[in-house]
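re: that complex we talked abt at group meeting.

here r the seqs, copy pasted straight from the sheet so there may be weird spacing, ignore it
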Amino acid sequence: MQWVKVLGGVVGAAALLGLGIIVGHFAIPKGADSPAPSASASQDLDLEILKTVIEQLDANRIRENLRELSKEPHLATSPRDEALVQLLLQRWQDPESGLDSARTTEYEVLLSFPSEEQPNRVDVVNSTGAILFSCRHSEENLTGEQGGPNVVPPYAAYAPPGTPQGPLVYANQGSEEDFKELQNKGVKLQDSIVLTRYGGVGRGAKAVNAAKYGVIGVLVYTDPKDINDGKSLPNETFPHSWCLPPSGVERGSYFEYFGDPLTPYLPAMPSSFRLNSDNASGFPPIPIQPIGFEDAQVLLCQVNVSVHNRLELRNSSNVLGIIRGAVEPDRYVLYGNHRDSWVHGAVDPSTGTAVLLELSRVLGTLLKKGTWRPRRSIVFASWGAEEFGLIGSTEFTEEFFSKLQERAVAYINVDISVFANATLRVQGTPPIQSVVFSAAKQISAPGSSGLSIYDNWIRYYNRSSSVYGLVPSVGTLGAGSDYAPFIHFLGISSMDIAYTYDRSKTSARIYPTYHTAFDTFDYVNKFLDPGFTSHQAVARTAGSVLLRLSDSLFLPLNVSDYSETLRSFLQAAENLRVPLEQHNISLGPLVTAVEKFEGAATSLNQRIATLQKGTSDPLQVRMINDQLMLLERTFLNSQAFPEERYYSHVLWAPRTGSVATFPGLSNAYSQAESTGHEPAAWAEVQRQLSIVVAALEGAAATLRPVADL
Amino acid sequence: MQWVKVLGGVVGAAALLGLGIIVGHFAIPKGADSPAPSASASQDLDLEILKTVIEQLDANRIRENLRELSKEPHLATSPRDEALVQLLLQRWQDPESGLDSARTTEYEVLLSFPSEEQPNRVDVVNSTGAILFSCRHSEENLTGEQGGPNVVPPYAAYAPPGTPQGPLVYANQGSEEDFKELQNKGVKLQDSIVLTRYGGVGRGAKAVNAAKYGVIGVLVYTDPKDINDGKSLPNETFPHSWCLPPSGVERGSYFEYFGDPLTPYLPAMPSSFRLNSDNASGFPPIPIQPIGFEDAQVLLCQVNVSVHNRLELRNSSNVLGIIRGAVEPDRYVLYGNHRDSWVHGAVDPSTGTAVLLELSRVLGTLLKKGTWRPRRSIVFASWGAEEFGLIGSTEFTEEFFSKLQERAVAYINVDISVFANATLRVQGTPPIQSVVFSAAKQISAPGSSGLSIYDNWIRYYNRSSSVYGLVPSVGTLGAGSDYAPFIHFLGISSMDIAYTYDRSKTSARIYPTYHTAFDTFDYVNKFLDPGFTSHQAVARTAGSVLLRLSDSLFLPLNVSDYSETLRSFLQAAENLRVPLEQHNISLGPLVTAVEKFEGAATSLNQRIATLQKGTSDPLQVRMINDQLMLLERTFLNSQAFPEERYYSHVLWAPRTGSVATFPGLSNAYSQAESTGHEPAAWAEVQRQLSIVVAALEGAAATLRPVADL
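got the structure back, here u go
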């Protein structure tokens, strides 16, 4: 899981996480070895098959998957990463439990690694340059797994090389506000090194913000208060508890965008046009290095930071596995997770991949037995180089842009599948809410409560819906994992599914060993989910969602559930009515557009309900399903956010403005407010409003009866 | 027909024309009055119905349509334009011969008109400013139809107001080369007025080019050599022949882009964000005024040009009429033409609208009788304000972007339906070639030759196809009429159909009275097509194409016909191989991509042929048809041409480079050559090449069997 721009998720801190893998490309042998049960065009979801799948998803097999997957470090493009590509291929080509086909494809992408010859260093020096203290170059080898040549030393991927030296200044989280405050207090930032703690803003943003004040180097550490609920002593941290040991250092990508940095909007084929890396944007402007809290607490005075990271073109693989649909093979339900990790990556991403492999095994077995074949095609994906910036998945969406835009029904992401054992946590766009609820109601929660996953979930995360009353709250999608290119670039309804924390018991920013050498199999097996029942719960939930999406006659995407989002955005916009009217900007057309959307969505649901009562003409079902599948696409506007690479979804683009309304409107409004009311800034507010109105009107138009124009 | 950027059509000068109308929005009364013949999902095109339609298309009714349509001037948004909106509505709502539904929608768009109070003037003055000679303010009233308040005086729409005065310089066609040559000859251009003739470059380009040399005003006249095969005397021109009289002046839009100038990419709803007209781009930078050749020949010395054009927001209507599809109502075959004219507009656009009304009458009658209903929906459209820049059609594509992108099968444009009586002329993208050929082979050409339209056509315009041998040549689509937003912005396979000249008999740039007050009913009835048999031929051809697209089980779009285009572009690119390799740019990936496309298209055609032999599963047919329908979409790339408003089709964007290859590659190559080999310019060549490769690879991917990924 990658931790970049996170966009105000309902679920708070848990929303800040993600995982990574590599990209492929398949041809299904036509019919060949897989017996196709005679498919009926009007066949609906088979509840018996669904029950069978849920029952067969096995916690112990998930544990054994995880043991294998996390046995060795598997940094993107490393030999072990490539070995796991082969493992996935073998599983998906297994004659007893494999899929219809599996293959890999490679992209040549720009990654960033620390130099093996010149380790990155952080030293305290005196005025003559003599070293008084040096930070660790690697984490302490506490369990025998933190050493060895395959454990990449802590570093900030994509940080530029350099050896800045200067006085150390503590800059809190390195946010814009933090630096402003330091400046206001008269602290000299020019030519300083700042020490920041993880959290608050994205990794790369700390360097971007710092550089604006003349800072020449940045250190980032993990604060025990943020990650360990305050615990910091060796005997109260891993391997004695799930807490991060004093030497643990969070690695991560400091690239501000996602996708291969040299080939934006183009698949990173060897022959593709590449930016010169000097012209690539989104890298930190100054050297930056992460350290552990053990070292952070002793730093003071003059500090010398030596960063020797190198950029390298590497071949990164995705693995794709396909089950051909029996009735509508040209409709794709995608299910993916990344494969690459920073070190062993037991939690991130292998808890997700362990679930993925168990789910594909169960479905593959039914397929090979001839018991079942889905109505629509299912595509399993193991993405490469996610940790460096969702690279494998992004290149995949670039390569297959047209095909996916025409045919993808939904994308299911299961990156870290288990953060903790308390409750389900789902992020996604509104149309996926209903299918997730249906799945969660049908499955028992782990533990002895006797509750369904749904009833357990509602105890931890809930909201009051004007339509449904009290329901579990589904969070929004930022850019923390591989769903980002699917939702923001392609407009494919997406979701991310996991089990997570009881927030009354921990305020950890994320599970403590995140992106460190301590994220190992034993950590999961001992502290995170000893019985693997949370893993199983996620497998069952995600599996049920997958089967419902692939096999239901009518797609279980409730487009009407977008209305609540639109109402909430509209309500927030209403707070701006007076200042907007002062600049001759009317909210009237927005109100009308939201009403039209609601009306069209409600009518469509009524038509579906009527059709479901009768016998179904396959073409009529297909036409309705096309309306449902393509709704999310109608919210894309490639003109809306010219500065935001890949972001084109007018409802879910990054919101930096303070008003919780449509992101373009919110951002433009904040900008207009802050620029002292320049006419051009208010024109942009009006433009953003018109873009949203046009998108909603266009969306409503696609939901109306298809012969209306 | 509008005459803007024209992009190297095969058909030469005839490719330079187009027509204009207004935009609507419909709801079909569900089933209501129209008896739906029991529709079979596997019903193919009914050849008897096709024969009936062709037989019933009546030349005399087309004549009477034209008489009514061209009775009075109907400039965009004028009262007569609005009266024609009502006429179209009445026809399409007729209980005996109407469609399922018809309605209008309005857009508020920025048009440009001459001032009624202060006529634009062109005067020859002496050194004291005294007027020695004045150009006519209007055309001579030769037939009683050239006078009256509704005849808009000649003007250059969107030319800025101003009263420049200076020495007159003749600047040929006002091309970049023309001005360079004048400068090289030492002619002083600074502060001059230039006299240019129509042709060579677009209207607005003459002012843009002139302004770069300090020119302060531009006159444009129609040269008898270009338009009248040299004839210029009153007794050899209209009303004595089809030639342009000495006082005739070509009006036109001088806007460089298309669509409403204030709302690019947004529908021009009253509430939409509008640019301030000072910030709008694409208007001529200096005053410009068109004049007749009668005046042009006497101009000399010092000239004063007074332009008093005003910009005005006006409501412009489209009219849409719909026939609901019986089996796949969510697939739209669009057929349109503009309605607005500069004056009476008998040829431009009423010859097209007269055909449109006859075709909709024949189909409407069959529909109301219960004899027929198409498989797919048919949308007839009468666009507004085309003459000002394809405004009605462009706003329509902006308003219904998502819906059209998802569902439009093809767009058929019949603007000027008859330029002359010699032969059919078709412009379009390759997938429409086969359906046009099928239609043209089946219909007799007008006259006594006994040939089919196809066999007659091949005598005038032909090419040697590597696949088919000698075939009629289909021209390419520029931006001369309302097909432009459909093909360039939305990627919908489009075509423009007309009857045109025998080029051995005239070299007229276009029919001589184009955009003048002499373009009247009598002109058509006497000179252009006295028997209206060419009109009928176009009606039959376009009607057959429409019916084949709406009723065929498998869409008659032959995607394989793109291969010849790709091969020809590739062959042209091969000429650049050596210089490209000198800059480390390889054509290898392009060659591979073209080969992949060819292979995938050929295989798809084989699959279709196999399926056509058996009984057809409706869903299987639908899946194939989706591949065919959406192929054109796969060539769009919104990142490819950031400077070119609306242009996103990587095969048909404007080509300014001299090499007849992919436009992005050609343009970037010419730029790199001319900039003295700057690295950034060669990087852009590589980028454009990668964009084409990615598009072709993506296109091939969508043509492969749908379960291949």
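couple things i noticed - Confidence is low (pLDDT under 50) at residues 3-38 of chain B. Chain B has 21 helices and 18 strands.
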